[in-house]
Amino acid sequence: MFGAKLGALQAVGSRRTIDSMIAAEPLVDEQRVGEPPAFPWKLWIYTNYDCNLRCRYCVARSSPNAPRRAIGLANVQRLIDESTQLGFVHAFFTGGEPFLLPDIYDMLSYSSARMQTTVLTNAMLLHGARLEKLVAIANERLIVQVSLDGGRAEDHDAYRGTGSWARAVDGIRRLQAHGFRVRLGTTETPVNSANLGLLCEFHRSLGIPDEDHFVRPLARRGYSREGLVLSMVNLVPEVTVNLDGVFWHPLSTDADMQVSKKMFPLAAAVGRIQRQLEHMARTGSVPLMEFK
């Protein structure tokens, strides 16, 4: 689960019309000029970049042919240890598709033993041995967030591929059958925008409450050629790490979003982000937006 009070804000403002249907965290968090936003103590970890899907709007440019660029278990363990010492309270594991990695279960087990942990997935691989391994590490601090863009196949498959909706829903039901807390992440697109109400009705029918459904707008990053133009200057930072270093936000691990080329010590990059926020506040930058 980042914008600006510029022209882009008008596009985001349209989301207000469905607030009564989707009880997500506020999409826009306006800050007074001169006052830095509260630092969000959330750590994002890109576990890998290869994926079983090639979504048309993927900001990470993931696909079955993308290089894996796996971060590795040892790095994850050190990141969790250092982030815990710094006061981080929630770790998010994303990709790519994390469940392509054989060591993802060790990563999630280590992290969820120390803080609240959410893993983002398309849920299509969660059956058989993979599901059994995930069930073996289940605990109350481990949440599975599934990408679902519609309450019907045509709204989801348009950007994610034919047949992906049915397999995602099957994955959701299997997770629920094993007692997992399932959250849903939705990207609003020109295809599904008019049907978000149907999606809300659908997730409620699955027993997923409104507070576990998050909707975000398209961002013009990665494969996407449409959506909001977002960068470090208009996004509230959420510390993000991949094999190449530390980044401002999970929206992108492109070079223009990189904070440090060194993964460790994590405190150095966190300090740099905090100082940048203070500088932006002093110089009267526009309010930052949260991009869920």
Separation of termini? 4 Å
Biggest pleated sheet: 9 strands, mixed
- Order the strands across the largest sheet as they lie in space: 6-5-4-3-2-1-7-8-9
Radius of gyration: 18 Å
The residue-averaged pLDDT reads 87
Please name the CATH architecture. Alpha-Beta Barrel
Order of helices and strands: HEHEHEHEHHEHEEEEH
Low-confidence stretches: 1-33
Number of strands: 9
- What's the shape? globular
Structural class: alpha/beta
- Beta-strand content estimate: 15-25%
Lay out the secondary structure.
Elements: H1 7-13, E1 42-46, H2 73-86, E2 90-94, H3 104-112, E3 116-121, H4 128-136, E4 142-147, H5 153-160, H6 164-177, E5 181-188, H7 196-205, E6 213-217, E7 240-242, E8 245-247, E9 258-260, H8 266-282
Parallel strand pairs: 1-2, 1-7, 2-3, 3-4, 4-5, 5-6
Antiparallel strand pairs: 7-8, 8-9
Describe the structure.
The chain is α/β, with parallel strands linked by helices. The chain has helices spanning 7-13, 73-86, 104-112, 128-136, 153-160, 164-177, 196-205, 266-282; strands spanning 42-46, 90-94, 116-121, 142-147, 181-188, 213-217, 240-242, 245-247, 258-260. The protein is 30% helix and 15% strand. It has a single domain (7-29, 38-282), classed as TIM Barrel (Alpha-Beta Barrel).
List keywords for this structure.
292 residues; alpha/beta; 9-stranded mixed sheet; 9 strands
TL;DR of this structure?
The chain is an alpha/beta fold and 292 residues long. The protein contains 8 helices and 9 strands. The chain has one domain: Aldolase class I (TIM Barrel, Alpha-Beta Barrel), CATH 3.20.20.70.
